[in-house]
Design a protein that fits this description.
There is one protein chain. The longest helix has 18 residues. By secondary structure, the protein is an alpha/beta fold. Helix content is 39%, strand content 21%. The chain has a 9-stranded mixed beta sheet with strand order 2-1-10-9-11-12-13-14-15, sandwiched between helices. The protein has a 4-stranded parallel beta sheet with strand order 4-3-5-6, sandwiched between helices. Strands 16-17-19-20 form a 4-stranded antiparallel beta sheet. The relative contact order is 0.09. Among the domains are: 185 residues, Rossmann fold, CATH 3.40.50.980; 116 residues, 2-Layer Sandwich (GMP Synthetase, Chain A, domain 3). It contains 18 helices and 25 strands.
Length: 554
């Protein structure tokens, strides 16, 4: 039986002169055919052999998504190396820490400045090699398929995002990838899509993010053109230019799109907001089985919805969303536009995926789909989700005690809380480690509150609820928001919450959190410990002011 890498090679050979991968550079596309991709991979493999690379040695890839990145990744896996993908926007000190941990023999970079930034904080770092040089230095490529891989051979070490501590190297092996890629390519076959036609997929999430990497491997294993974003500052233009049929997202982008559209519509003349409100109400009623409202939906689809869809290039058939649960309101918003969103749930330790919405079935907003085939997904103590199956990682790099803890009892303990309904659809309610414990003893998951507050403020970049060990909750809000708008959002959300879950005070921070500042992970998750440490004084002052105003204790 062929492994996932051999299947990928077969598809690239079948593709021949068909473009399989391309980058957006301004208004232009730079593409590469299946035949040329294999040739460049062969050149990189020959260069790696000249360097004396041995199977099982670790090699780091540091750079933004690009064709050379994909070439080196495939070449390293084909030669039996262990790939360590690193995030170009991460702080050099953090990158150096990861590299010290796994001791890569070689470091391949998209530009030499990145390599230099590592050397400044870690002089013992491997001499960086430019990715394009590694592809061009040898003219006679290796022309055979990938070297044989055993099921337990390590393929990659992906460092976790480190939301609550030091990043750990997650080891993934051939067995993990064989199972996950078979699930994702099988999922693609269940889409309402003519398999004889080339599917266009857009990709902006970095390849050091496990699920993003799986998207790349899956697309190269099927009849697709994968278009890579090269400038996140021009993401809206890139999406429109690439005109994808599908693409993978994190909730942040989709929720900003919804809030931005609704804010823009509210500023139009009275007629447009009225049509939108009537259409949205009619759509919700129709979802509940009621009749009526077709006139307003007809108007909205022609006057409003079509213009919104055009922002995505006009060919959009559906969106996939992972990394964190998506707000039900956002999923409903896109469904009303005629764009289904399929949710995915998983962790790096589960090869990126545990559940997926089935594209043949109606999705349930607020839920992340059913468990993928071949795994056991269960609810353990404290409502923790635990998983057993071929997607579960063999362990953390050089961390036997933490590996034993994570895999205690023969299952992987995700640290996520959730539950499953009678249809088999899962809901994620929060992270156990993120629970805020008030001095009253109440345990509170901050994520649902943060999501609801953010949904009521289009301009907010992040909302962080704080209050561990305190008497009540407060919040940090980033972005170009004003105090009255924040208070209005809190008043709206608080009205539906019990007293101990209400947010009593807030602090606006103009500068949004970023991965470069060390306050966000590579895929946009909050680093709560770092945020609490960075703004400890400001949080203390916020509580003192609130206590003084209320005449009580913080």
């Amino acid at each position: 039986m062929r492994n996932f890498l051999e299947n990928l090679w077969e598809e690239l050979n079948r593709a021949g002169e068909r473009v399989v991968l391309r980058e957006i550079r301004g208004e232009q596309f730079t593409g590469i055919t299946g035949k040329e991709l294999l040739r460049q991979v062969g050149c990189a493999r020959a260069y790696l052999c000249e360097l004396g690379l041995q199977p099982g040695e670790r090699c780091a890839l540091l750079g933004n998504n690009s064709i050379p990145w994909v070439v080196l990744d495939l070449a390293l896996m084909a030669e039996g190396a262990i790939v360590v993908p690193l995030y170009a926007r991460q702080a050099p000190a953090e990158l150096a820490g990861m590299m010290r941990d796994c001791s890569p023999r070689f470091l391949f970079v998209s530009d030499m400045e990145l390599g230099g930034s590592i050397a400044k904080v870690w002089p013992e770092a491997p001499e960086p090699v430019q990715m394009t040089d590694a592809i061009r230095k040898v003219s006679v490529p290796v022309s055979v398929g990938p070297n044989a891989r055993k099921e337990d051979d390590l393929l990659t070490i992906i460092y976790t995002s480190g939301t609550s501590g030091e990043p750990k190297g997650v080891c993934l092996d051939t067995r993990n990838l064989n199972h996950i890629v078979s699930c994702t390519t099988g999922w693609m076959e269940r889409l309402d899509w003519d398999a004889s036609q080339t599917m266009h997929v857009f990709q902006y999430l970095p390849f050091n993010f496990a699920a993003s990497w799986i998207v790349m491997l899956s697309c190269l294993s099927k009849n697709t053109v994968l278009t890579l974003s090269t400038d996140l500052n021009k993401l809206a233009d890139e999406i429109r230019l690439s005109a994808p049929n599908y693409f993978f997202n994190v909730p942040t982008l989709l929720e900003r799109v919804r809030r931005g559209v609704e804010e823009a519509l509210s500023k139009r003349g009275a007629g447009v907001p009225r049509i939108y409100r009537r259409a949205a109400k009619a759509w919700r009623r129709q979802q509940e089985g009621e009749k009526g409202g077709s006139f307003w939906l007809f108007l909205a689809r022609n006057l409003i919805f079509a213009a919104i869809r055009a922002r995505f290039g006009g060919n959009l058939r559906g969106l996939v969303c992972g990394s964190a649960p998506l707000a039900p309101e956002t999923q409903d918003f896109f469904a009303m536009l005629g764009v289904p969103i399929w949710q995915v749930y998983g962790l790096t330790e589960t090869c990126g995926i545990c559940t997926m919405d089935d594209p043949r079935l109606a999705s349930e907003p607020g839920r992340v789909g059913q468990a993928i085939p071949g795994i056991d997904l269960m609810v353990g103590d404290n409502e923790e989700i635990v998983v057993r199956g071929p997607n579960v990682f063999p362990g953390y790099w050089n961390r036997p005690e933490e590996t034993a803890q994570a895999l205690k009892g023969g299952v992987f303990h995700t640290g996520d809380q959730g539950e499953v309904n009678s249809k088999g659809n899962w809901r994620i309610s929060g992270r156990i480690k993120n629970l805020i414990i008030l001095n009253s003893g109440h345990n509170i998951a901050p994520e649902p509150i943060e999501d609801k507050v953010a949904q009521n403020m289009a301009a907010a970049q992040q909302v962080v609820v704080v209050g561990n060990g305190r008497g009540y909750l407060c919040a940090l809000v980033t972005g170009a928001v004003e105090g009255p708008a924040v208070q209005a959002a809190l008043d709206h959300v608080n009205s539906d919450l019990p007293h101990y879950r209400q947010v009593r005070n807030f602090l606006v921070l103009r500068d949004a959190f970023t991965p470069e500042s060390g306050l966000l992970t590579a895929n946009g998750k909050l680093r709560r410990d770092a945020i609490n440490a960075r703004f400890r004084d400001e949080i203390d002052q916020m509580y003192k002011k609130q206590a003084a105003a209320a005449g009580g204790n913080a």
